[in-house]
Amino acid sequence: MYELLSGHIARMGSNVKFGGFHFSKGVVWCEVMLNFLALLLAVVGLSACASHPPTDTATAYSAAQVSMKAVVLSPEKEAEAVLRFKNFYKDVTPTTVREQIAGIYSEDAWFNDSLKTLNGRTAVQDYFLKTLEHAEVFQTQVDDVARSGSNYYFRWTMDVRFKGSKETIRTIGISHLCFDSSGLIILHQDFWDSTSGFFQHLPVIGGVIRWVKSLL
After folding, report:
1. CA separation for the pair 215, 193 (Å, rounded)
2. Which residues form the domain of 6?
């Protein structure tokens, strides 16, 4: 892999573009970065070869589905629950989180947004408030809703802009929701590309991810 990266830089001519930054060919920084990437790949490779069981991200999700007593809502309650979800995520702010979350999630809700798994409404609230310390805009437009038994699927488009950034990040995804008899969410599992929606925009590592993607 190190030889592949070195060869790629050599073929790029006198300038190297890496994660939005430009460097002259032959500068020491490029060599340092290549060494860093080689070391990172080596660590990842050694970790993969270690005798650890494979990570199973589906286990907790499957267990939560089994343990939750999801119901099929009446047409009236379903319409109310869908509207509450749409209104809450339309423009998430610290104020709306504090004022509305008790009417959205059950006290023992299970939540996973592909970045973090949480148990309980209080944990979900704290997570949102912490996220909003770094986000200036957090808006989601629900594009479609479908139901299969007691499982509801919300297809959405999300816009996020981090504080200090002029870029609004737009991503798409689907949320699998289950409700209790009161129309509160007891299970929330997101399916979305967290690399494009989050990690790719972080300093340093975001540049690495974008650069690697450009080689594919």
Report:
1. 19
2. 2-48
Q: Which two tokens stand for residue 128?
A: 């949102």
Spatial CA neighbour of 102 closest among 91, 90, 88: 88
Of 216, 215, 174, 168, whose CA–CA distance to 193 is shortest?
A: 174
What is the distance between the alpha carbons of residues 152 and 178, in angstroms, rounded to a whole number? 6
- The model's confidence at residue 16, banded by pLDDT at 50, 70 and 90, is very low
The answer to whether residue 215 is domain-embedded is: no
**Measured torsion, CA atoms of residues 74, 63, 194, 148, in degrees rounded to the nearest 10:** -30
Model-level pTM? Answer: 0.68
Q: Are residues 43 and 13 in the same domain?
A: yes
Q: How many residues would you count in the chain?
A: 216
The three-state secondary structure class of 154 is strand
- How many other C-beta atoms can be found within 10 angstroms of the C-beta atom of residue 41? 13
Q: Helix, strand or coil for residue 108? A: strand
Domain CATH code at residue 68 = 3.10.450.50
Q: Are strands 185-192 and 105-112 parallel, antiparallel or unpaired?
A: parallel
Write out pLDDT tens, residues 176-207: 999 999 999 999 999 987 655 444 444 444 44
